[in-house]
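Possible regression after last week's pipeline update?

I re-ran a chain I had predicted before the update to compare outputs. Posting the input and the new output here so someone can diff against the archived version. Not blocking, just want to make sure nothing changed silently.
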Amino acid sequence: MQDAVAAPSNVRFGGMNRYETSVNVSQNNFEKSEYVVLVSGENFPDAISAAPLAKKYNAPILITEGNNLNVNVYEEIKRLGAKNVFIVGGIGAVSKTIEEQLTALNIQVTRISGQDRYETSSKVAESIGTSNGIVLASGENFPDALSIASIAAAKQMPILLTPAKILPDSVKDYINNNSIPKSYVVGGNDVINDNVVKDLPNMKRLNGIDRYETNLNVINEFLGDLNFNNVYLAYGGDFPDALCGSAVAAKEAAPIVLVSKSYSKAQSLIRSKIDSISSLKILDGTLVMSDALVQSILYPNKTVLGYTTYYYEGDSSSYNSIINHSEIIDSIATDTYIMDSSGNIKGSVPYNQVSYANNNKIKTYAMVSNSFSGDIAKGVLENSTNRQKLINNILQRLKSNNYKGVNIDIENVYYYDRSYFTTFMSELYNTLNPQGFEVTIAVPAKTSDSMWQSWIGAYDYGEIAKVSDKIVLMTYDEHWSGGEPGAIAPIGWVENVIDYALTVIPKDKILLGLAAYAYDWSSNGVKAKSYGISEAYNTASRNSAQVKWDSAAKSPYFNYTDGSGIYHTVYFENSTSISYKLDIVNNYDLGGVSIWRLGLENSDYWETISNKFNRY
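New output (post-update):
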């Protein structure tokens, strides 16, 4: 194991409201300051371009209500000993009354404003200059500008604002009248159209599918210029806290990471820099950014889903595994229901498994399969009545047996039923999701979208992802029981599967499938036997076989000759082989893993999962 690294400390700057938060940020980072930048806390447009100005004068950014100077801000300005205050924005944003209140304190007030938000950004830019480049961001919403505010401030690049479809004359004139070595456009074409930026000198666009991905891409663009000793977290749903934090972050060349109330897309980035981070500085209170959220950003919670079986009366192998490892297992999918071609389902519910899981906060999914029959699948998928019948039957069983969702395991679907299968998943999701049930699915592993290939062609990863909560990639059986001997899940193949999947499936939805079994191939051509990990070691021991290591596949294996003189080749998965797969999950920041199946694994297997996923 790697040496433990001290966890970053968490420092909060939250207050009862945004004005108190801005004061707390200032108090904790500025002993004194001759300058203060004051902006409206009620609306973003004028304020959003203020960060580079604050950095130029090594000043805090404070926010106030528009009509009267906030009392806490008033006291903070006095504490700082400020002699100069820059007000960014017109009297509609920060009133004349506030200007008079400051003047009464013998403070020199300089107002920077224009006819609108765009001209105001140009006026601020005049104080910064263009020798290091410019930033162009949307003036119609704040997140993109906030993503780059601390970086623009640190590099002394002015933030100019524009609407989506036409560059304002004030901004255009500023650009035309200055020598600009580099231009950064923050946001996609829908935010700032290509025709707006086509004439910008040396232009680079930084954007993502949403504000959080844009934020991540901005940070990655300037990664080499940033100091990760301190990382600032700010709520991406509003502007004041991140804006005030940008002045402080700029002093340290530190990144500001935008987070929602439930997640951050920068988890993998933060984890990759964990050795460098001394503290997370949180620009809000726990109501907006909970301690649990911060902890999940530092140590993302990976899902561990275990498939369970109940093959005969008294079969307790999966049940015992659930009990023994309930602190690690997040969810189970019980191999329960088999469908027929008309949409009927039947199966025996393992009530003890479901009851124990529900009582111990482990999610329960009912697995629905088709006995690997393409004909059964065809009969349901191509008939809308049968599809609806299957969906209704699934819903009824979930409700009557206290399941929290379904796990679809319909395999060997004919490639020409691809669109029907996607339609079925969409109909299923649109029925179950509004009623609070989760929809998960297991799909065969593939490294490209081979639409006409048997076994894998029917599964449109991208479309299925839109109507699924979790997708289990069955990254095992690359060498299967009916084929030639070889590693069950060779690491190179697994990586290729994940590389392709990530192009079409959101990473947080992906569960990497782990095998917990062996295949024992005999030289007489009989289909390979399968058994658990402990039995693999026992078989090797009984036959005086040495367990070897396939360094290319990252898999254990051994050979032996049985009492009948038949030669055997055995490949299996164990704690060492899965450690490489768990590294993929962490490195790619996937949603977690699934295990086929509970009851076949051994204690070392679980210890490796605990170590890799910080489950102690």
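Follow-up from reviewer: compared with the archived run. The longest helix spans residues 384-400. Marking as no regression found.
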